[in-house]
């Protein structure tokens, strides 16, 4: 009977272990894909020092050329403290409805215990209402995939891809329909240096013709396999309203466990 009790306890522990592990928040969850904003909106990075460790990091933004835009700030946060950094779309474009792609950056100070947990959000300047909220990630797959998403006649799907430093991104980007067939523009070749980004748009009006109709598409990023050189293409997809340029939905890449052999931890 004693032997049976021991077996039952060991079995119970083995069942509970994955549940406990799943609740542990990852440290240094600070990486993002490209995010689009327009006039009348603000993109804000929020970062918190996840207890019991502090967070020492540099917050900033960069454009599609990999160059810094807006303000850069260094934060020194004790466990439980938080800070934010914002960039106003009005300072990035003077054209109403024009979208600008921005990459939030959070760079923890190396060589010390750091637990910087970051998120990014887009909110309306006038009302302060958040329309997009994205958690940071420890890392992404070197060849991340995005799922299906819907678009209407008054919207456009945008596929972003950024070359995560220190590696380039060489490959092709496109859209497939539910039958796996190419839709919209032909394949777009990308050859990006570290930190550079680009995008491909697919107007919903090329797929449906009436209000209320929807078309499901899948954004595709196909990294080149022509060489053995490192290749880090990190995608994101957005659906935005034509004319206004405001995002109606945002699809970030799936994060992954940095201990995985298929994960690129940035």
Structure description:
By secondary structure, this protein is mainly β. It has 2 domains: 25-136, Hypothetical Protein Tm1070, Chain: A, CATH 2.60.290; 138-266, Jelly Rolls, CATH 2.60.120. It has one helix at 2-22, and strands at 35-37, 41-49, 55-62, 68-77, 82-88, 100-108, 116-124, 130-135, 139-141, 149-151, 155-163, 169-176, 182-192, 197-203, 215-223, 233-241, 247-251, 263-265. The strands form 5 sheets. The protein has a 4-stranded antiparallel β-sheet with strand order 1-6-3-4, with no helix packed on it.
Question: How are the SSEs placed, and which strands pair?
Answer:
Elements: H1 2-22, E1 35-37, E2 41-49, E3 55-62, E4 68-77, E5 82-88, E6 100-108, E7 116-124, E8 130-135, E9 139-141, E10 149-151, E11 155-163, E12 169-176, E13 182-192, E14 197-203, E15 215-223, E16 233-241, E17 247-251, E18 263-265
Antiparallel strand pairs: 1-6, 2-5, 2-7, 3-4, 3-6, 7-8, 9-18, 10-15, 11-14, 11-16, 12-13, 12-15, 16-17
How is this structure best summarized?
The protein has one helix at residues 2-22; strands at residues 35-37, 41-49, 55-62, 68-77, 82-88, 100-108, 116-124, 130-135, 139-141, 149-151, 155-163, 169-176, 182-192, 197-203, 215-223, 233-241, 247-251, 263-265. The protein has 266 residues and is mostly beta strands.
Low-confidence stretches: 1-26
Could you say which overall geometry the principal axes of the C-alpha atoms support? globular
Oligomer: single chain
The whole-number mean of residue pLDDT values reads 86
Integer tally of domains: 2
What's the CATH architecture of the largest domain? Sandwich
Give the H and E element order. HEEEEEEEEEEEEEEEEEE
> Can you count the helices?
1
Which CATH first-tier class of the largest domain would you pick?
Mainly Beta
**Strand proportion:** over 45%
Kindly provide the radius of gyration, computed on alpha-carbon positions and rounded to a whole number of angstroms: 21 Å
Helix vs. strand class: mainly beta
Distance from N terminus to C terminus (CA atoms, Å) equals 52 Å
DSSP strand tally? 18
Question: What fold name goes in the CATH topology slot of the largest domain?
Answer: Jelly Rolls
Helix content: under 10%
Strand order of the largest sheet: 1-6-3-4
Largest sheet: 4 strands, antiparallel
